[in-house]
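Internal tracking record. Fields below are filled automatically when a chain is submitted to the structure queue. Please do not edit lines marked as system-generated. If the sequence contains nonstandard residues, flag them in the REMARKS field before resubmitting.
Queue: standard
Priority: normal
Entity type: single polypeptide chain
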Amino acid sequence: MTAEEWIQYGAMVVAITALILKWKGMKKFVAVGLFASFYANLWCFIAAHYHLWNYHANVIVPAVTDFSLSANFVVVPIIAMFWVRYCPLRFKEMILWAFLCTTVLTGGEVIIERFTEVLKYHSGYDWYYSYVLWFFSWFIWYGFHLWLNDWRRDLDSFFK
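SYSTEM-GENERATED OUTPUT FOLLOWS
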Protein backbone atom coordinates (compact mmCIF):
# COMPACT_ATOMS: atom_id res chain seq x y z
CA MET A 1 0.00 0.00 0.00
CA THR A 2 1.13 3.52 -0.72
CA ALA A 3 1.53 6.25 1.89
CA GLU A 4 -1.65 7.89 0.58
CA GLU A 5 -3.65 4.73 1.15
CA TRP A 6 -2.19 4.29 4.64
CA ILE A 7 -3.10 7.87 5.56
CA GLN A 8 -6.68 7.70 4.31
CA TYR A 9 -7.51 4.20 5.52
CA GLY A 10 -5.66 4.83 8.78
CA ALA A 11 -7.59 8.04 9.47
CA MET A 12 -10.87 6.25 8.81
CA VAL A 13 -9.94 3.32 11.06
CA VAL A 14 -8.86 5.62 13.91
CA ALA A 15 -12.02 7.75 13.61
CA ILE A 16 -14.39 4.77 13.45
CA THR A 17 -12.58 3.01 16.31
CA ALA A 18 -12.83 6.13 18.49
CA LEU A 19 -16.53 6.40 17.66
CA ILE A 20 -17.15 2.76 18.54
CA LEU A 21 -15.27 3.10 21.83
CA LYS A 22 -17.20 6.24 22.83
CA TRP A 23 -20.54 5.38 21.19
CA LYS A 24 -22.48 5.65 24.43
CA GLY A 25 -23.69 9.25 24.48
CA MET A 26 -22.70 10.01 20.88
CA LYS A 27 -26.10 9.33 19.30
CA LYS A 28 -27.33 12.84 20.06
CA PHE A 29 -24.40 14.25 18.05
CA VAL A 30 -25.08 12.32 14.84
CA ALA A 31 -26.92 15.33 13.37
CA VAL A 32 -23.78 17.41 13.94
CA GLY A 33 -21.77 14.81 12.04
CA LEU A 34 -24.19 14.88 9.12
CA PHE A 35 -24.11 18.67 9.07
CA ALA A 36 -20.29 18.63 9.22
CA SER A 37 -20.23 16.29 6.22
CA PHE A 38 -22.51 18.61 4.26
CA TYR A 39 -20.44 21.62 5.34
CA ALA A 40 -17.14 19.94 4.33
CA ASN A 41 -18.56 18.98 0.94
CA LEU A 42 -19.80 22.53 0.39
CA TRP A 43 -16.31 23.91 1.03
CA CYS A 44 -14.77 21.29 -1.26
CA PHE A 45 -17.11 22.23 -4.09
CA ILE A 46 -16.24 25.91 -3.58
CA ALA A 47 -12.55 24.95 -3.60
CA ALA A 48 -13.04 22.93 -6.78
CA HIS A 49 -14.80 25.86 -8.47
CA TYR A 50 -11.99 28.28 -7.58
CA HIS A 51 -9.28 25.62 -7.96
CA LEU A 52 -7.98 26.11 -4.40
CA TRP A 53 -7.17 22.47 -3.62
CA ASN A 54 -7.81 18.99 -4.91
CA TYR A 55 -7.30 15.39 -3.89
CA HIS A 56 -5.02 13.51 -6.28
CA ALA A 57 -5.09 10.21 -4.43
CA ASN A 58 -8.65 9.40 -3.41
CA VAL A 59 -8.61 5.77 -2.28
CA ILE A 60 -12.34 5.07 -2.27
CA VAL A 61 -13.17 6.42 -5.75
CA PRO A 62 -9.93 7.41 -7.51
CA ALA A 63 -11.73 9.32 -10.27
CA VAL A 64 -13.10 11.84 -7.76
CA THR A 65 -10.56 14.59 -7.11
CA ASP A 66 -12.90 17.41 -6.06
CA PHE A 67 -13.37 16.13 -2.52
CA SER A 68 -12.10 13.38 -0.27
CA LEU A 69 -14.71 10.74 0.41
CA SER A 70 -12.77 9.37 3.36
CA ALA A 71 -12.37 12.79 4.98
CA ASN A 72 -15.75 14.35 4.19
CA PHE A 73 -17.93 11.33 4.91
CA VAL A 74 -16.04 9.58 7.73
CA VAL A 75 -13.28 11.55 9.45
CA VAL A 76 -14.65 15.12 9.55
CA PRO A 77 -18.14 14.13 10.78
CA ILE A 78 -16.67 12.04 13.59
CA ILE A 79 -14.22 14.79 14.54
CA ALA A 80 -17.10 17.30 14.65
CA MET A 81 -19.16 14.98 16.84
CA PHE A 82 -16.29 14.62 19.32
CA TRP A 83 -15.53 18.33 19.29
CA VAL A 84 -19.10 19.32 20.07
CA ARG A 85 -19.48 16.63 22.70
CA TYR A 86 -16.33 17.51 24.62
CA CYS A 87 -16.26 21.25 23.99
CA PRO A 88 -15.68 23.18 27.25
CA LEU A 89 -18.50 25.36 28.55
CA ARG A 90 -16.48 28.49 29.33
CA PHE A 91 -15.73 30.75 26.38
CA LYS A 92 -12.01 31.16 27.16
CA GLU A 93 -11.53 27.41 27.44
CA MET A 94 -13.58 26.91 24.27
CA ILE A 95 -11.26 29.27 22.35
CA LEU A 96 -8.17 27.47 23.67
CA TRP A 97 -9.77 24.11 22.79
CA ALA A 98 -10.44 25.39 19.26
CA PHE A 99 -6.87 26.68 18.87
CA LEU A 100 -5.46 23.36 20.06
CA CYS A 101 -7.67 21.25 17.78
CA THR A 102 -7.08 23.59 14.83
CA THR A 103 -3.31 23.53 15.30
CA VAL A 104 -3.20 19.73 15.43
CA LEU A 105 -5.44 19.26 12.37
CA THR A 106 -3.78 21.99 10.30
CA GLY A 107 -0.35 20.63 11.21
CA GLY A 108 -1.38 17.21 9.96
CA GLU A 109 -2.87 18.75 6.83
CA VAL A 110 0.35 20.67 6.09
CA ILE A 111 2.42 17.50 6.42
CA ILE A 112 0.00 15.61 4.17
CA GLU A 113 -0.02 18.42 1.60
CA ARG A 114 3.76 18.82 1.50
CA PHE A 115 4.87 15.19 1.52
CA THR A 116 2.09 13.15 -0.10
CA GLU A 117 -0.25 13.27 -3.06
CA VAL A 118 -3.42 13.10 -0.95
CA LEU A 119 -4.04 16.86 -0.98
CA LYS A 120 -2.57 19.65 -3.08
CA TYR A 121 -3.07 23.41 -2.69
CA HIS A 122 -3.38 25.68 -5.74
CA SER A 123 -4.03 29.31 -6.73
CA GLY A 124 -2.31 30.88 -3.74
CA TYR A 125 -4.16 28.80 -1.16
CA ASP A 126 -1.92 27.97 1.80
CA TRP A 127 -2.05 26.44 5.27
CA TYR A 128 -3.13 29.61 7.08
CA TYR A 129 -6.39 29.69 5.10
CA SER A 130 -7.05 26.12 6.26
CA TYR A 131 -6.24 27.19 9.81
CA VAL A 132 -8.88 29.93 9.71
CA LEU A 133 -11.40 27.62 8.01
CA TRP A 134 -10.93 24.88 10.62
CA PHE A 135 -11.04 27.36 13.50
CA PHE A 136 -14.37 28.89 12.50
CA SER A 137 -15.82 25.52 11.46
CA TRP A 138 -15.70 24.32 15.07
CA PHE A 139 -17.96 27.17 16.15
CA ILE A 140 -20.31 26.73 13.21
CA TRP A 141 -20.75 23.06 14.09
CA TYR A 142 -21.18 23.93 17.76
CA GLY A 143 -23.73 26.62 16.87
CA PHE A 144 -25.63 24.12 14.73
CA HIS A 145 -25.77 21.73 17.67
CA LEU A 146 -27.05 24.45 19.99
CA TRP A 147 -29.61 25.62 17.42
CA LEU A 148 -30.83 22.06 16.96
CA ASN A 149 -31.22 21.63 20.73
CA ASP A 150 -33.05 24.92 21.41
CA TRP A 151 -29.81 26.64 22.52
CA ARG A 152 -29.33 24.25 25.45
CA ARG A 153 -25.92 22.80 26.14
CA ASP A 154 -25.81 19.36 27.75
CA LEU A 155 -23.14 18.84 30.36
CA ASP A 156 -20.84 16.10 29.21
CA SER A 157 -17.50 14.98 30.50
CA PHE A 158 -14.34 13.32 29.31
CA PHE A 159 -14.73 10.85 32.14
CA LYS A 160 -18.15 9.40 31.29
